Amino acid sequence: MRVGIPRGLLFYRFFALWKTFLEELGVEVVISPPSNKAIIQHGLVYGVEEICFPVKVFLGHAYALLGKVDALFIPRMVSFRKNEYNC
Q: Quick check: is 82 in a domain?
């Protein structure tokens, strides 16, 4: 199984953990290419106006993985500390 991880948002903080976890499960990990104009453009096209730019770029990274993987790994991390929340 090939699982894609978009190169955005929490990717830079947790990629090593996620990659190790998935590889230990026998999964082939595929990451999106570095941000570029095409990725940003796809994020702007497919993202709604109200979301922030980093999320739009993240959507562009997810789009870049379409057709190259069996699934996307997009963990939802709500909080790192008590009474603090991530958007």
A: no
